[in-house]
Amino acid sequence: MEYRLLGGSGFKVPVLTLGTGTFGGSGEFFKAWGETDVQSARRLIDICLESGLNMFDTADVYSYGAAEEILGQAIAGRRDKVLISTKATFRFSDEPNDVGSSRHHLIRSVENSLRRLGTDYIDLFHLHAFDALTPIEEVLSTLDALVRSGKIRYVGCSNFSGWHLMKSLAVAEKYGYPRYVSHQAYYSLVGRSFEWELLPLGVDQKVGTMVWSPLGWARLTGKIRRGQPIPPDSRLNTKVVVDLGPPIDDEYLYRIVDVLDEIAAETGKSVPQIALNWLLQRPTISTLIIGARNEEQLRQNLGAVGWSLTPEQVARLEKASATPLAYPYFHQRLHFDERNPFPVAVTS
Prior knowledge:
Blueprint: E1 3-5, E2 12-14, E3 16-19, H1 27-31, H2 38-51, E4 55-57, H3 66-74, E5 83-88, H4 103-117, E6 122-127, H5 136-148, E7 152-158, H6 162-175, E8 180-186, H7 198-205, E9 208-212, H8 250-267, H9 271-280, E10 285-290, H10 295-302, H11 311-321, H12 329-335
Parallel strand pairs: 3-4, 3-10, 4-5, 5-6, 6-7, 7-8, 8-9, 9-10
Antiparallel strand pairs: 1-2
């Protein structure tokens, strides 16, 4: 397993991280992801550790805390062998203050996550989303206190826009607060808008990217093809609209899958392995958060590392997945690329 530095920090993480959204299966939304219990979770973690994958990502809202509890029980007795990433800020209950990035909510969220995980520290703590109602100084001073207390070791964010992240980094620099070393963001062959602003920002500010949903909401699993119905067990059959992700034109998807199929025939690798390997060659990428309902899916995803697509294959995938740029990005690319180049190589 390859390890990479997380952003500009000295902290190394495996290029694949196991996400625990499938743990628990409480409620219709998370049930569509999976219903992994403690025994099954323990087995998945065994396989991960055997492969060198030792990082596990979760969140307080996953199955309303059950995912953290299951992860905590599954790693019992081997906490020193694993890295834990968790998140907070989304609403956890109907209580007025049980949401956001206020000092009140963050401290309580971290304390509750520690209890559910059965540990006294969190390796990497992310804000799950940007809270525009809480001053950034309050957010970062709280995270600073949690770092100084030893309860969390590194901090990151998730689902921030470019200005959210840049303003937060500026405030951190001004007051000497911990900088966000990572950004959990959506990025895939069928979702490349991350490249417009967040990727160049990450290169410039040395913020590592932890990619969630790298297979584009199950669209790049190899099960979706032109002229074939969606498999009955696919997440895309869920009735929970929010779990379907952004709408994607069918022909656009099929064009990408056609190229993935061609490269699969050339390499002997599977469609999802190729889609994941493409991401690992993009700038700023520190780790991909992979999900797995069972051992077969996990082993399939683990096969995405240890080899690389050729530059020609990468170029074909990028041509097939290209989309029109929004303003001002198309103007920058078209008229001033000479002095505003797009980052194309992996940076270390």
